[in-house]
Amino acid sequence: MTYRAPVEDLAFTMRHVAGLEESIAEGLYPDLSVELVEQVLEEAGRFASERIAPLNAPADRTGARFADGQVTTAPGWKEVYTAWAEAGWNALPCDPEWGGQGLPTLVQTACVEFWNASCMSFALGPLLTAGAVEALTAHASEDLKRRYLEKLVSGEWMGTMNLTEPQAGSDLNAVRTRAERAGDGTYRITGSKIFITYGEHDLTDNIVHLVLARLPDAPPGTRGISLFLVPKFFVNDDGSLGARNDVRCHSIEHKLGIHASPTCTMVYGDAGGAVGWLVGEENRGLACMFTMMNNARLAVGAQGVAIADRAYQQALSYARERRQGRAPGAGEGMSPIADHPDVQRMLLTMKATTHAARGICLMTAAAIDRSRLAPDAEARRKAHELASLLTPVAKAFSTDIGCEVASLGVQVHGGMGFIEETGAAQHLRDARIAPIYEGTNGIQAIDLVLRKLPLSDGTTVRGAIAEMRKVGARLVASRDEAFGATAARLREAVEALDDATSFLLKALSGNSPADALAAATPYLRLFGIAQGGTALAMAALAASEARAAGDTNPAHAGRIALARFFAENIATGARGLAQTVMTGASALADAEAALAG
Ligand SMILES: Cc1cc2nc3c(=O)[nH]c(=O)nc-3n(C[C@H](O)[C@H](O)[C@H](O)COP(=O)(O)OP(=O)(O)OC[C@H]3O[C@@H](n4cnc5c(N)ncnc54)[C@H](O)[C@@H]3O)c2cc1C
């Protein structure tokens, strides 16, 4: 099954949900026009569909191979990666000072969706390189920037993120990798890291590892962690590659999915200590790493959307061909399964939740852009808080949707979905990692509730809810009957979110964090439903207005029908989630007894 990049829909969502036109009009993107953005998406979509997507299934079968400390990527990967980097795609969001194109996060997020839908294993390496570039741009010394950034930006080299150790996953307090001052301004790094994506491979001549480690005199916990740049090969003053550093890949993992993405155990300092250079200040490494992790969290959210869209496209195509039974009102003979109401429900659930998650990711990207580019400091601060609020929702809601949609994709295929040759199973296997890495979805939910709701004493979350209500008011004012009960159901969902938010803010200020922690995951889901339903409604309102103005594009009717399906069939779960948030914690008090039984 091939992948068709949904260029038109991305462009429409950027314009009518993520405010692309307003941002251009306000001067946030001085070098951009809607037409230029559409051209970029068109080109990216073509590269993704034509060059990368055909690698997906064969690379899943071959996987990445490990022998004698070397990792060999799947056949054809090096050629496609080189062509992709040479076409400038790696440099898209990067600072022009280092050879980047300086395009906004909004455009990058749309492209990240395309790369990951075409092949998640392939796109994962560049995703982490983008995070490394961002962390180095923000925190590295001028010398490190000059030595490394240009080649990381061009994609000639790739970057990695080294946080995880066997005893330190969600809890980075437990990081044990050691860093010793060498006395010449460099450090010697010793220890091992597990699960390092693209820690070793044959796509580029050099690999630049960003590694969290602890100095001997560091304070305990996360206040004592520093960030180091550790290259695979040293880089001479003239930019040429020197000797090999004391870092090696010990082995790669055999995994449920993303088989072609090498997940490496890395060993630092077997032969006396890997040479590392400090990024930022000593003991402030986690703050630097967070620059990279926030970037990566939104990108992982876009991976969830990507895999969901690819699974949906495949399921729809299969459902239109496969014939079984007779659908209501159909003539003689077997109907395509796509005509059966229950299959239609599955397909619509897949499409509506995918589009809702896409809307959230693009809104988050737009807020990140505004937080950097708005001329007014107060506008930047507010946008930063909105982006901080939305990032855990974008990551966790979208990656949960990725799994759910990929699972429905298998279901639509019936028995064939369980058979590897259709490819539906691969999407489900690949999707499953995204709720786990870049901070598990449970950790995202806790971040949302404990750190993001209290921003500006709750003003930020209240502001987000007020924006949702404004869209609700526009729905009420719309005379388009095609909306059905969209306005009413969405209003109920937003009010449910408001109630749950008040409950949690009270629990937090009343020092009952246990209640808030117990409620975090259902609250994040509720937030995603209200925000995602709002995003769909914004697109549908724009479609309705276009239709009223005589635009006969058939996609417009589809947008209204999709928003209505979401409101009437999925947003209806919001009240139940709010109930769980507000009363469900008490049942956890008996968790021990229930689990023991
Ligand atoms: C394929 C793959 C690629 C990866 N790539 C990288 C990479 O490039 N670089 C890197 O550094 N790491 C990488 N990781 C590691 C990944 O980020 C971690 O697996 C993840 O952060 C979870 O840590 P853990 O596996 O130790 O799980 P744990 O932290 O043990 O969590 C297990 C469960 O407990 C929950 N939990 C843990 N703590 C809490 C808490 N305080 N409150 C509530 N619930 C909690 C979690 O949500 C989860 O459900 C990768 C992992 C995989 C599988």
UniProtKB/TrEMBL annotation:
<dbReference type="InterPro" id="IPR046373">
    <property type="entry name" value="Acyl-CoA_Oxase/DH_mid-dom_sf"/>
</dbReference>
<dbReference type="Pfam" id="PF12806">
    <property type="entry name" value="Acyl-CoA_dh_C"/>
</dbReference>
<dbReference type="InterPro" id="IPR025878">
    <property type="entry name" value="Acyl-CoA_dh-like_C_dom"/>
</dbReference>
<dbReference type="Pfam" id="PF00441">
    <property type="entry name" value="Acyl-CoA_dh_1"/>
</dbReference>
<dbReference type="GO" id="GO:0050660">
    <property type="term" value="F:flavin adenine dinucleotide binding"/>
</dbReference>
<comment type="function">
    <text>Involved in the assimilation of dimethylsulphoniopropionate (DMSP), an important compound in the fixation of carbon in marine phytoplankton, by mediating the conversion of 3-(methylthio)propanoyl-CoA (MMPA-CoA) to 3-(methylthio)acryloyl-CoA (MTA-CoA).</text>
</comment>
<keyword id="KW-0285">Flavoprotein</keyword>
<protein>
    <recommendedName>
        <fullName>3-methylmercaptopropionyl-CoA dehydrogenase</fullName>
        <ecNumber>1.3.99.41</ecNumber>
    </recommendedName>
</protein>
<dbReference type="InterPro" id="IPR009075">
    <property type="entry name" value="AcylCo_DH/oxidase_C"/>
</dbReference>
<comment type="similarity">
    <text>Belongs to the acyl-CoA dehydrogenase family.</text>
</comment>
<keyword id="KW-0274">FAD</keyword>
<dbReference type="InterPro" id="IPR052166">
    <property type="entry name" value="Diverse_Acyl-CoA_DH"/>
</dbReference>
<feature type="domain" description="Acyl-CoA dehydrogenase/oxidase N-terminal">
    <location>
        <begin position="38"/>
        <end position="156"/>
    </location>
</feature>
<dbReference type="InterPro" id="IPR013786">
    <property type="entry name" value="AcylCoA_DH/ox_N"/>
</dbReference>
<keyword id="KW-0560">Oxidoreductase</keyword>
<dbReference type="InterPro" id="IPR009100">
    <property type="entry name" value="AcylCoA_DH/oxidase_NM_dom_sf"/>
</dbReference>
<dbReference type="InterPro" id="IPR006091">
    <property type="entry name" value="Acyl-CoA_Oxase/DH_mid-dom"/>
</dbReference>
<feature type="domain" description="Acyl-CoA oxidase/dehydrogenase middle">
    <location>
        <begin position="161"/>
        <end position="268"/>
    </location>
</feature>
<dbReference type="InterPro" id="IPR036250">
    <property type="entry name" value="AcylCo_DH-like_C"/>
</dbReference>
<dbReference type="Pfam" id="PF02770">
    <property type="entry name" value="Acyl-CoA_dh_M"/>
</dbReference>
<dbReference type="Pfam" id="PF02771">
    <property type="entry name" value="Acyl-CoA_dh_N"/>
</dbReference>
<feature type="domain" description="Acyl-CoA dehydrogenase/oxidase C-terminal">
    <location>
        <begin position="283"/>
        <end position="446"/>
    </location>
</feature>
<feature type="domain" description="Acetyl-CoA dehydrogenase-like C-terminal">
    <location>
        <begin position="466"/>
        <end position="591"/>
    </location>
</feature>
<dbReference type="GO" id="GO:0016627">
    <property type="term" value="F:oxidoreductase activity, acting on the CH-CH group of donors"/>
</dbReference>
<dbReference type="InterPro" id="IPR037069">
    <property type="entry name" value="AcylCoA_DH/ox_N_sf"/>
</dbReference>
